[in-house]
Amino acid sequence: MTTPLTESIAAALARRDELSRQLLVEGTDAYRIFHGVAEGRPGLTVDRYGDHALVQTSREPLTEAELAALGDQLRWPLVWRHRGPRPLGAREPLAPSPFSELGVSYSAPLVHRGQDPWLFLDFRAGRRWIQAHAAGKRVLNLFSYTGASGLVAATAGATEVLNVDHGGWPLKAAQDLALLNGVTVETLRSDHFLAVRQLAGLKIRGRAVRKGFERIEQRRFDLVVLDPPTFTKGPFGAVDIVRDYAGLLKPALLCLARDGVCLATNHSAKVELEEWTDQLERCASKAGRPLTGLEILSPEADFPSTDGKPPLKIAVLRV
How many Å apart are CA 215 and CA 6, to the nearest integer? Predict the structure, then answer.
């Protein structure tokens, strides 16, 4: 059955034909099939993860007819999750699904206790950069979630990898994925600000001192991955990438060894690229770690942008 949706999906698949072949040669079978905000259906995304297609809706759920037509059109079983004001039950068991990216193996449930997939596909450009530059490096992965950036660094030959996150299950997932790929990573479960300030050698003050806190030794790293969420409030500070990115960047830069690199992201559409890069340069100078280089990485072709301004901004900062 042909519908406006299946016509849009067919056009998106045609646009990705060359890319999908290239990715498969590189050992990647996880990529975006349909990016609705730029391809005619805002609120809808379709992603391939190995032998499954993950369909996510955030405005209007798909109709039964659309789901049936989409299932007939794609060659992979569908997993559908609605994340709108009235979430619907996901049509998928929680069993892990195997897939790969850039030759790195993953096994993850496409629907699980969290809101997001284990692997954010739009950050592939960042992981590709890490894979090309992490050999022989000491790597700190902040807001590590399931540890994909640290995993890529470890498989690329990093000498040390430390994943830092406040969640227990994402760090367990990071260790499981490292085991799957035959590499070793460290994990540290901690509030971000408590961890990064101590790793940077900064003092802990105020509420943390009154409550008592776990002591963490100062360390230096050659590469720091700073990939924060948009906003979250913890007991020792708020993460806010729109209003206070400097509060996140400064201690991350102070964790760097001489000639180190910070791979930083900002995925808020409210923040313009030029505005953000100005903030990065000012913050680095004020922190006493002025930038010697700044490179912008764009998301890859399966994440098109109608105005050339993708929400995800990735910066390679050299100090």
Answer: 55
